[in-house]
Amino acid sequence: MKTLKMEFYKIKRRKTGLTLGAMTAVQFLWCVWAFRGPDEYERLQGWLGTLYSMPLLNSIMMPTIMAVLASRLADIEHKGNTYKQLRTLRNAGTLFNAKVLCGLLFILMMYAAQLLFLILLGHSLHYEGRPDMGLYLRYLFLSIACTFALYLLQLTLSMLFFNQMIPLVTGLCGSMLGLILMYLYNWNLRSLFPWGGYIATMFVGADWNPQTRIMTYYLMETSENGLLSHGFIFLWAAVFYITGRWLFTRREA
Amino acid sequence: MAAQNLIETSDLTKQYGKNICVSHLNMQVPEGAIYGFLGPNGAGKSTTLKMLLGLARPTNGSITLFGIPVNEKNRVRLLTDTGSLIESPSYYGHLTGEENLCIIQTLKNCPKEDIDKVLHIVRLEEARHKQVNHYSLGMKQRLGLAAALLGFPRLLILDEPTNGLDPAGIQEMRELIRTLPSDYGMTVVVSSHLLSEIDQMADHAGIISRGRLVYQNTLEALHSHARQQIALRTSHLPVALDILRQNGIEAAVEEDYLLIPMTDDACVAHLCRQLISQNLSLYRVEKREKSLEDIFLSLTGKEHSL
User: Fold this and answer.
1) A124 part of contact set with chain B, CB < 8 Å
2) Which of A44, A122, A190, B238 could be disulfide-bonded to A196 (CB atoms 3.0-4.6 Å)?
3) Per the CB < 8 Å rule, is A253 touching B109?
4) Domain residue spans of chain B
């Protein structure tokens, strides 16, 4: 607990929250632009529409945001040459866990802000009815799991490499891959990439009618393949955690 | 009763690929000592200290700290009574000196008042609220020492603590280290590649060369090896050697000189008269001194064991 507390103490004046806040604000602005001026039909299915759009948006932005978050948390140790001192005070595994938990708390805060924003946006745009909190919690759970897996990957890279360009470029490539994977219609293949988790676990589908130019959203049934996609997210998280912790603890200071 | 050894290593070895950095090191640091760990650059000093602190895994051998064999389970617990400064100081540049110490103090679980005490010891009280990025190298080094002193541990391990300091800073650091055993009951292991530095600070010395410990004893014992001799150069060395023997003096021949043990002026004058009376030309009479530097060089360069 003390080690975790110190993680937050260490990033004092680093404006980590502000950086993440700014990136999240960009995401929110994107939403405001994308959902602007809904008509009657769009209002009717507005809540479902957000659950269709947000995974796509997360898929594009979250890999980069996670790369930035992990880098902000890890590079202070590289810059200050502090690992060797910390490792005389705590086991390497404990230090790794503290960074993991610190990042997870940031992720939880980001998604809490996202949920609040979506509800406020929906109300301000006069969406019909109330948001289905069960669906929203499902969305949050899957998105957090997927984001956490990416954070673990980025944290490992940021802690292992002194040069933070390597993890940051990985994050940017992940964002691009997330975008490309949207056009991949083989759902199983999407699951094979940790960046494809947002899309692979989507449970709201959309039918686009080119004649009427109307988008109709619908809840998808979770097939066996869908469950497999869910499993892959947790598999990636477990793989990244175990590998990252192992690589970090075996490395000599 | 002999003082307990706070550090004991047995056959400590570290190998990176085919390169053996530290080889079968048997280090013994008595409690209350200032142990100067001396060796040329790349001799294996930092690697040894890193192994003591668990920052590098030994390829072979064992380490005992405070009489307890160190393993991965008890390593951090044993190190809570240890302070260290390895290579360059560790710090968070965006935080103030006091905030940096606060992190170590919290992780070490030592009283908050210690921060004021160590800042006073290293004379950084006025700069405590300044961001460490704005510190000079000397100040950063002092902050590193302050961090190592937090909790006033029994054992302090300092790797080249005067690196990068100006002459005044070096002197100040030495003075400070010298007072630690008497003022705070600490045992200090301090590494350096400078013999003069260790000579001014330490009371025990371990000399490492190419990964092997070639000397380990008190500094006093090392000084006793620094002996003075008289060197004589004459026109005929074998005859001169005989004359010296007849006077009961055993001499060694080194290049064109005869080396005899240090003796008083009257004896030297008597020997000179004897040599001249035998029609030998006496070209030179010199006082020779084998300095600590010579001993260090012979130990680290030629690896002769004392």
Assistant:
1) no
2) A190
3) no
4) 5-224, 228-289
d(CA A135, CA B1): 75
**Topology annotation, domain B5-224:** Rossmann fold (3.40.50)
C-beta separation of A193 from A59 below 8 A:
no
pLDDT number for residue A115:
94
CA-nearest residue of chain A to B83? A88
Shortest Cα distance, chain A CAs vs residue B82, angstroms: 9
Name the token pair of B244.
Answer: 């010296």
Contact A220, A205 (CB under 8 A): yes
Q: Which residues of A touch B76 (CB under 8 A)?
A: 88-91
- Report the residue of chain A nearest B109, measured CA to CA: A2
Cβ contact, residue pair A82, B91, below 8 Å: yes
CATH architecture of B228-289: 2-Layer Sandwich (3.30)
Residue B53, exposed/middle/buried by CB under 10 A (0-12, 13-18, 19+)? Answer: buried
Q: How many CB atoms lie within 10 A of CB B283?
A: 11
Give the residue among B203, B161, B158 at the shortest CA–CA distance from B31: B203
Say yes or no: A182 contacts chain B, CB-CB below 8 A. Answer: no
ipTM of the complex: 0.81
Distance from CA of B302 to the nearest CA of A (A): 32
pLDDT band at A137 (very low <50, low <70, confident <90, very high): very high
Q: Which two tokens stand for residue B277?
A: 């009376």
pLDDT digits (tens, 9 = 90+) for A33-45: 988 888 888 888 8
Query: Which residue from B minimizes the CA distance to A3?
Result: B107
| Cβ–Cβ under 8 Å, residues B25 and B13 | yes
Q: Using one digit for the tens of pLDDT, what is the confidence trace for A202-239?
A: 888 888 888 888 888 888 877 666 777 788 889 999 99
Q: How far is A26 from chain B (nearest CA, A)?
A: 27
Instruction: With CB atoms and an 8 Å threshold, state whether A252 touches B50.
Output: yes
Is residue B236 helix, strand or coil?
coil
Q: Do A252 and B91 touch (CB under 8 A)?
A: no
Distinct helix (H) and strand (E) counts, chain A: 11, 2
Mean pLDDT, residues B221-230:
77
Does A2 lie at the interface with B, CB-CB under 8 angstroms? yes
The answer to whether the CB of B303 falls within 8 A of the CB of B214 is yes
Query: pLDDT averaged over chain B?
Result: 87
pTM of the model: 0.80
Residue type, B25: L
In this complex, do A252 and B57 lie within 8 Å of one another by their Cβ atoms? yes
**DSSP-derived secondary structure letter, A221:** P
